[in-house]
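**User:**
Everyone, produce one record:

**Assistant:**
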Amino acid sequence: MSTTPGSGRSSSKAQSQTNALGGAIRAKNSMATDKSRSFNLVVCGTDLVTDGWIFSDFLGFAMLFKEHEADAQLLTCFPTEQHMDCQSHKFYQQIAADRLKSKVQQWIWERMFQARPGDVVNIVLLCHGNRDGDFSLGNSWLKAVDLANSLSSYRDGVQVNLFSSACHSGHLARAIAKTKQTNRYVSVAAEPKKLSYAVRTRSGRWRSGRWANAFVTGALGIVDPGTNMTAPVTIADHENWIQTKLRKVSAKSPTMNPIFHSDISPTTSLKDLLFRISEPAEPITPPRSIEWPKITAIVQDVVSRGISSWALDSQSQSSDLILPPSALATANRELSLCNTELGFPPDLGVFTSLSTIHPEWKGILANLYWRSFRQVLMLEIFLTLLRKGLVNLECLTAPIDLYNPTTSTFDVAVAISRFSLLMEDSEKAFRGKLPLQSTEWSTDIEWLATMILRSRADISDVLNVIKNLGLLGTFDKESFRENDDLYADDEIRYDDDPTFTPSADKASSVKNNVFGFWLPHGLSGDSSTFLSQLQQCLDRAAAIESAYKLLEPVPVGLLILSIDLFIENPRSLDELPSDESSADSKTSACINDPEPTECLPLAGLTD
């Protein structure tokens, strides 16, 4: 065990961007089993009308637990009636100042009997603290030593987390360390002999505590515009986030060194620590009408019938006569973008059928539909990484050589391909269980890998985001360890991306596209043209889905991947090179690095 000192984006805009993607991707708090329960207490200990900034911290933590669907006991003695006219529909419990301490102690005592091994208990104290390490709860004091000792009666295996914004709150970390209790985590604002400071906005009002602001924004993954910070995934990530946020203040502001105490692994998932959230995360609202390949047995059966089922009933009947004209037109439009003479193995099944007297058009469309849904997942992952600040939009302005991925692109694609959905697809393809597909298709994975490398994102962070998102299934770490030279070296090196050329404003050449590949690349550096070209990519995806629905009993619905994300995020558009900027300056912005000196460790990937 150790006790060590630490060496906005608006929520409405963040929510609008989330809605633009068709729904929030949130993790469910699994309350179905005893081992996944969480008990949460948030206390605002001040009854002084001038301490509105502490009550603001209280509201921030309340939002944090609400966002993760975790029930919390919210206790406050702050005189809200002197700040707010409306006192109805309170989501917190107003406690008299002379009763708050006993109410807190009662809650802690009751949880002692309720919490069982595997549960988590979170206690958040937002209040003033004195030099002796006492916490001001209403008009009484709760000693740090007494609080620490009271927790020693909890059952072994119960994870207890303590958080406080109080001055001198480092005393609590010391007190916990001295008791030698296990399964304890402490994150507090100040060293034992230091104060905890507030944040003042441009209007001159004190809005919140600096530590609480950093803690909550990190736990919610709210990244400030114009920064290169990454939303925390692990405990270590979150601690680093808090330290970084507390350092990024005016030079005239006092220094704050947060204190952390823990006897658990720093690579533990932050959400698991706080909320006992089961991984992988599940979408509350599907971002589109069809989840591939989990939607229903209908879609799985339709797409997995294999080549033989697409043979025509009669050799004398032309296949295009039984296809709706619009569906046939969609297939032909996608085929017209391809060079059928390149001998690209993943496309040969489709092209071989195309060369026969009676092409298996239903099989071609099924293959097209399968590829399109794979790309939907990759684009959704890209947009999630974009929101978390791991990738940037400028990467889409460079074309990609779809047939010749770089060595680093291949390595990163191999890592991504170790998710269960992609491994299952690969096995189906090699076994002839996907229509007109006899080998794996990974162009979509290599597209995502290219964007990750161009953004110089940390691969461990990316893989953890993908794992938590859950769209690609579970990550097979053992397969990754056993089969890939990439993991043997324990690093991925950045290298030059030869596909980033001065002709970045030109879209990828016609007759040089992989069959059915519509993911955006080579878009214009001009913002308005960029949006138009991006919409064309999404229109192709929607057309493929619509064409396939004309043939098979696929549920009615639209593909929801709204371009509104970019419209609602003008800052991201400002980062794009303007049409007046030179191609050379754009080339050097985020891609080319003549010296491959930076390495990306993979050891941080959590199980």
Q: What stands out?
A: Residues 33-275 form a domain with the Rossmann fold fold (CATH 3.40.50.1460). Residues 361-387 form the longest helix (27 residues).
